[in-house]
């Protein structure tokens, strides 16, 4: 299941950033900060009790000359509203209810999303009565906190996680393959989705960045059921100026997390860029199923071995995903687009593959006989047992004598043996090593 997204919304100076930093640094453990999103920490994966979720700090929603909300801030808030599963609306308990609070509340009510109303700066018991006037916003019971002093944060987090969908649609998720199309702007992600769907479902334009959010489209055919997630392209950090584009970056990373298969789309004329390497690197770190599509292949002049030479060049730059298959297409003309879902399904099948324990241990035993483990210090690595507890991604747990004897090169050798013995093309695999006494 995808991690819930919790957005923090409110006007400036209500203590929103203080709350975000307090939660991120004190009350919950940060699982991962995503580098390169913004210098301000607006995005963090976090845990509370048994729940893992993503926090987003949206920045203040300001009024222009005391009368209208600035358009930029309104757009920023709207993106946060559309992105979030739960919205925390933070107001100032010392300053009291303002016209800006009413306007934000009106936007939030239209979203039909769960809203947690947070009255901040309630630093002592005598200030508790300040919360009553916020019932006028009409969005439920306010919860009082002091972000600066850390008061009431546990109750706040309990209220937030109450809104998470713990039931899920597990049956549907098992049958449905989530495919995220990733890559820099204007490489033809939306065009490919429209070609696969047979309709103009996604706005297509040659202006980079037309797709601001991650958009889901659904398709069912004889291969199965697919959710196609069209993500906004990632630009260089220096070019991510608009707040709205920062949220596009967040949505792209969130789309990768919930995807089974990530399709990196590369512009045939531009080749692989640094941004391509970074974004597919994120998918690789999560051990997702990955395939590479080179689009606009119809614009390349062909000579003998043009495709082979081009493919070798890309593979050298993306050598860390050597397991990924390649497809050369033209989304505009439809060349080879009929193979996209077929290849994605093959990658997914390997991503979801399970190996019987007996066969798995036979393969690893033979691998150890063929190449003896190294001696590190005075100890030699011993592998007692291997098991595969989960799929998506295929995860292998090795029980060994001493973690310090597992050299990186031997770990890579074992991965290659697994890949050679069982077809894991198109998917990352995860390897864990646990010490066990003899």
UniProtKB/TrEMBL annotation:
Domain EngA-type G, chain residue ranges per copy: 4-168, 177-352
MF (Gene Ontology): GTP binding; ribosome binding
InterPro entries assigned to the protein according to its UniProt record, in alphabetical order: AAA+_ATPase (IPR003593), G_ENGA (IPR031166), GTP-bd (IPR006073), GTPase_Der (IPR016484), KH_dom-like (IPR032859), KH_dom-like_a/b (IPR015946), P-loop_NTPase (IPR027417), Small_GTP-bd (IPR005225)
Positions that bind GTP 2: 183-190, 230-234, 295-298
Secretion signal span: none
SMART domains hit by this protein: AAA (SM00382)
Keywords: GTP-binding, Nucleotide-binding, Repeat, Ribosome biogenesis
Entry binding sites for GTP 1: 10-17, 57-61, 120-123
Family under the similarity heading: Belongs to the TRAFAC class TrmE-Era-EngA-EngB-Septin-like GTPase superfamily. EngA (Der) GTPase family.
Assembly notes: Associates with the 50S ribosomal subunit.
Function: GTPase that plays an essential role in the late steps of ribosome biogenesis.
Protein name: GTPase Der
């Amino acid at each position: 299941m995808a991690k819930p997204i919790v957005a923090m919304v409110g006007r400036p100076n209500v203590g929103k950033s203080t709350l975000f930093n307090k939660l991120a640094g004190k009350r919950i453990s940060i699982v991962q900060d995503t580098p390169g999103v913004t210098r301000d920490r607006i995005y963090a994966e976090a845990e509370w009790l048994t729940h893992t979720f993503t926090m987003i700090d949206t920045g203040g929603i300001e009024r222009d000359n005391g009368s209208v909300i600035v358009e930029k801030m309104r757009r920023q808030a709207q993106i946060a509203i559309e992105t979030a599963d739960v919205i925390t609306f933070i107001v100032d308990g010392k300053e009291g209810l303002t016209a800006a609070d009413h306007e934000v509340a009106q936007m939030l009510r239209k979203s039909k999303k769960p809203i947690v109303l947070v009255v901040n700066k309630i630093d002592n018991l005598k200030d508790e009565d300040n919360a009553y006037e916020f019932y006028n916003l009409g969005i439920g019971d306010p919860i009082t906190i002091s972000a600066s002093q850390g008061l009431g944060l546990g109750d706040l987090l309990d209220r937030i996680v109450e809104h998470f969908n713990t039931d899920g649609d597990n049956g549907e998720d098992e049958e449905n393959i989530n495919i995220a199309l990733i890559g820099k702007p204007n490489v033809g992600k939306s065009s490919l989705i429209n070609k696969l769907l047979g309709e103009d479902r996604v706005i297509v334009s040659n202006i980079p960045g037309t797709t601001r959010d991650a958009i889901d489209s659904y398709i069912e055919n004889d291969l199965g059921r697919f959710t196609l997630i069209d993500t906004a392209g990632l630009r260089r950090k220096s070019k991510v100026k608009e707040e709205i584009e920062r949220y596009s970056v967040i949505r792209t990373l969130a789309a990768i997390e919930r995807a089974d298969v990530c399709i990196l789309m590369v512009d045939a004329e531009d080749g692989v860029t640094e941004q391509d390497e970074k974004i597919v690197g994120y998918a690789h770190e999560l051990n997702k199923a990955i395939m590479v599509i080179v689009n606009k292949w119809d614009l390349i002049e062909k000579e003998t071995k043009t495709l082979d030479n081009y493919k070798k060049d890309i593979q050298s730059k993306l050598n860390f995903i050597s397991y990924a298959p390649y497809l050369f297409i033209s989304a505009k003309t439809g060349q080879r687009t009929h193979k996209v879902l077929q290849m994605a399904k093959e990658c997914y099948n390997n991503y979801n593959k399970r190996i019987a324990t007996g066969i798995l241990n036979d393969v690893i035993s033979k691998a150890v006989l063929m190449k003896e483990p190294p001696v590190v210090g005075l100890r030699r690595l011993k592998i007692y047992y291997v098991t595969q507890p989960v799929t998506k991604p295929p995860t292998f747990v090795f029980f060994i004598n001493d973690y310090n004897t597992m050299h990186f090169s031997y770990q890579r050798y074992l991965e290659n043996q697994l890949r050679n013995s069982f077809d894991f093309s198109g998917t990352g695999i995860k390897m864990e090593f646990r010490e066990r006494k003899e």
